[in-house]
Amino acid sequence: MSVFFAKRFLTLLATLVGASIVIFIVMEILPGDPALVILGVEATDEAVLALTKELGLDQPALDRYFDWIFGMLQGELGNSYAYKVPVWELVEGALWITIPLAIMSMIMSVTLALVIGLYAAANHNKAGDISLMGISQLGISVPNFWLAVLLILYFAVELRWFPAGGFPGWDEGFWVCIRALILPAVALATVQGAILARITRSSVLEVFREDFVRTARAKGLSQRSTLWLHVLRNAMIPVLTVMGLQFANLLAGTVIVENVFHMPGLGSTVLKAINNRDTIVVENVVLLLAAMVVITNFVVDILYAVIDPRLKAHDI
Amino acid sequence: MALLEVKELDVSLSTAMGPARAVRNLDIILEKGQTLGIVGESGCGKSMTALALMGLLPENGTTSGEILMNGEDLLVKSEKEMCKIRGNRMAMIFQEPMTSLNPVHTVGRQIMEPLRLHRGLSKKDAFTEAVNLMERVGIPNPSERVRNYPHQLSGGQRQRVMIAIALSCSPDILIADEPTTALDVTIQDQILELIQNLVKEEGMSLILISHDLGVIAENTDKVLVMYGGTVVESGATDQIFGNLTHPYTQGLFAAMPKLGMGRNGRLTTIPGTVPDLINLPTGCTFTDRCPLATSECRNTVPVAFSLEAAHKVSCHHLDQAIEARGEGLYK
User: Fold this and answer.
1) Phi-psi sector, B172: left (phi>0), alpha (psi -120 to 50), beta
2) In sequence order, what are the beta bridge partners of B231?
3) Rounded-to-integer distance, Cα B77 and Cα B83, Å
4) How many domains, chain B?
5) Domain limits for position B300
6) Domain check: are B16 and B97 in the same one?
7) What is the rounded average pLDDT of the residues B281-309?
8) B320 with B292: CB under 8 angstroms?
9) pLDDT at A254 over 80
10) CA A257, CA A245: separation in Å to the nearest integer?
């Protein structure tokens, strides 16, 4: 187990280093001078030069890269070019929206997927299965920003069950915030959940054809007990893989959905920062998002080994 | 009353091409402690018969006839009642030990399952019993092995675990479907011997399914020879092997490699292939491959004819078949 764990952890670190290099290079290549954006097109060359020096942007790229990385290791993310405040201050508030949103939609999508997928598999080729798979096909085809607008129109404007947008802040109370997050979470979870439901269904059906399922039935286990005790755990391996991959999509989705709901989450923060050429904020936020994805997949890898003892044996 | 009495069992599988009649008009009588062999080539309905007895046919399978166990018809029992019989009064060992165990559970847990389900043992008692069972089926160091996962055991050991599972609730009937086909020749004998010993100790009845005539001859009291979903010859093992009668049985026997036939001796084969179960011939299923076949065979289903006590053969040309025993029907 420890070898397995260590290998996975090294992969995680290597991925993060790679990601940081890619992010930094992309921001270097991106046209637009932060100093020029801050000062406006009317600014004199001297002023732009002075600001560039003040921001430290006149240093060689390699130096700035290592400054960024070592700063980060010491918990120092630097200051925003545009707002002159520490990056962490800008990001912290946004994290408190985006992370709960991502977790909420992940929980929704997984619950939805397992319930639908298992039900459909247990009623293979019956009316329930066919109609649920039809609905999930629809769920996959709907773009999340459009679904978000529909949800606002119906549940916020028409029924007035949920706020149409904005985020009250966690000081205003837990449930108020959860209410504000429900519609965006549903918009995000629908597509992901629909895909995952189909994967759950086909995975369960596939495992049902395995020889050990016949053994379980020959022991006297009912179809239902066999599903819970023997099929589910084996069927979870592909489902888990897709869940890990979907987490990246989910974070990408938050950028769009947060904009539809006017939520000052990480998505809006990073969009604003790109417009301002606030490269240091962009770099940090994107690396943070990358870290979230990589860590999720690390956890998925560990869960593989928990589910399937054969993986530990081979130390993949 | 016989322990198991199967009357006119028909198994049909619905396929896109039409119904495939996997088993037709099958009768079995199995007494307590008796060992029945079912022999035939692939696709002759052996495994479907076993699955039908267990009530575990695939979803597209339908059955008719009667399967009486101690006089109770299993075919009319509810799924819930069948769950109480499977693994408890009737247990089964499968062909593929490599894939028949759940890879994500320890073998101990898999042996404990029927113990807890049918015998209502506590977790602790079931664990102790699982270790005992593993010892009984000859797995060395059972108290450690009990915590192993299937991938940590060899094929022979996995089949022993399967036997331990089947044995766990001392069933009345044990069905072994090609239990040694997937194993090394050296392991095959050990496993068969183990099954034989356990069957004797427990007083169980055994249904041994195999395509291997040697295995059947050594391990059974009576035999059904199946071809194309139906029984062509049945009787006591000594009768069948002493007096090979049906042209198919003669062919099966002739096709076995024999000691002393030399390197250059060619194996005898039965010409043709197994019949298509969807478009079965109207008469005898063996017509197309039989050297004795006439138009009568093609059109009329032969009835079982009793040669001597309990030795029955379904063939229109019995006399010719018996005459041909000496020099053989197949050249």
Assistant:
1) alpha
2) B226
3) 10
4) 2
5) 238-323
6) yes
7) 86
8) yes
9) yes
10) 19
Q: Based on the fold, state whether residues B176 and B202 are members of the same structural domain.
A: yes
Q: Which pLDDT score is estimated for A312?
A: 67
CA–CA separation, A258 and A269 (whole Å): 10
CATH fold, domain A87-275, is MetI-like fold (1.10.3720)
Chain B residue with Cα closest to A234: B104
Are both B207 and B181 inside the same structural domain? yes
Across the interface, which of B87, B99, B117 has its CB nearest the CB of A211?
A: B99
What percentage of chain B carries pLDDT values higher than 70?
Answer: 100
- Shortest Cα–Cα distance, A120 to chain B (Å): 16
- pLDDT, tens digit, for every residue of A128-151? 888 989 888 888 888 888 888 888
* Separation of alpha carbons A31 and A115, rounded Å: 48
The ipTM (two decimal places) reads: 0.88
Please check whether residue B221 lies inside any domain of the structure. yes
Best A207, A208, A212 member to test B by mutation, with max B CBs in 10 Å, is A212
d(CA B291, CA B125): 60
Q: DSSP letter string over A29-80?
A: HS---HHHHHH-TT--HHHHHHHHHHHTTTS-HHHHHHHHHHHHHTT---B-
Contact A222 B83 (CB under 8 A): yes
Q: How far apart are the first and last CA of chain A?
A: 10
Least confident of A158-167, A289-298, B256-265: B256-265
Mean pLDDT along residues B59-77: 91
B174 is a domain residue: yes
Give the tens place of pLDDT for each residue, A79-105: 887 777 888 888 888 888 888 888 899
A221 contacts B151? CB cut-off 8 A: no
